[in-house]
Known about the structure:
GO terms for molecular function: metalloendopeptidase activity. The protein is mostly beta strands. The chain has 4 domains: 1-38, no CATH class; 52-224, Jelly Rolls; 230-280; 290-347, no CATH class. 11% of the residues lie in helices and 32% in strands. It contains 4 helices and 20 strands. The chain has helices at residues 296-303, 311-319, 326-331, 333-347; strands at 18-20, 23-25, 52-61, 66-73, 78-84, 90-95, 101-102, 112-116, 119-126, 129-134, 142-148, 154-163, 177-179, 195-199, 202-204, 220-224, 230-234, 246-250, 253-257, 276-280. The protein has a 6-stranded antiparallel β-sheet with strand order 3-12-5-10-9-8, with no helix packed on it. Strands 4-11-6-7 form a 4-stranded antiparallel β-sheet, with no helix packed on it. A two-stranded antiparallel ribbon has the order 1-2. The longest helix has 15 residues, at 333-347. It starts with 17 loop residues before the first strand and ends with a helix.
Amino acid sequence: MADRVMDGTSCGPYEADLCVNGRCQRIGCDGIISSSAKEDRCGVCNGDGLSCRIVRGDFNHTKGMGYIEAVVIPAGARRIKVVEDKPSHSFLALKDSSEGSINSDWKIELPGEFELAGTTVRYVRRGLWEKMSAKGPTKAPLHLMVLLFHDQSYGIHYEYTVSLNTTQGRDEDLYIWTHSSWQDCSVQCGGDCGQGVHKRTVSCTNPQGVCDPLSQPTQEEPCENHSKCYEWKTGDWSKCSSSCGKGLQSRVVQCMHKLTGRHGNDCSVALRPPTYRPCHRGTCNEKINVNTITSPRLAALTYKCMGDQWTVYCRVIREKNLCQDMRWYQRCCETCRDFYANQMLNKS
């Protein structure tokens, strides 16, 4: 049996009730055991809910990529809820005026609890659907953003409560730097082979441009792009596979780095040079060229034929029409060669 926990231990991760003498006791907002006192939506113990107002809103977006600010939740907000309208290939992001953030700067967090603006924010992600919530009150503004990777129909619903007596803070606290996604690298295997820069658009959400210059994100960073550093290299064509008539030539085709000569897999398949090409070495002396009546493999075997290996059985193999089987063709190549030649003469 487990030891009894200490008095005053919370009964659960999201409960105000405490363990007393080994039993979970209800604690009211007035701090009294077994009290029925509760906070209203404004955070006032036994209040009537009239000292604050509920702020609700919807954010919808159909075009654009990168981080896009949806709303600034002011300091002092309580009962914050943010929910996506439907599952989508995007991410909710939240950031306060300090270093606290969720899913910012292109870093996607795992679901869990995060300390932002003096309150605990619960981040939930189930598949492609997300939501955020916080009890509050917040001690600093929270910037709610969405990270979009392509144009799409996207929407979220948010709500929170704020005291009717809340005074507005500094204007610059309500604005934050936002930025687009990075553009393509400025070089494609140019200069130092892939070393270049890529840029993005950085802007302040305040129309008057009042944002903290010390927290401004960079607009330009070094990048590498090796997509054009590899090219197809070809060897010399081989000799024609046939001493007469039609044949094939082959060559080595490899994808290699332009500068280092290393092999790679970044060459365009559509631009790959051919590995084989037809060739012709003049008319054969034989009356019938077996290259024109058999497969390339049969033709190759014909030229290497040194006579029948099974002289007694080759006639039977020919009569049973087994020459088309490679196992018998190799052992009776001379008899089978005549068989194919006679077939062509009969067709002509």
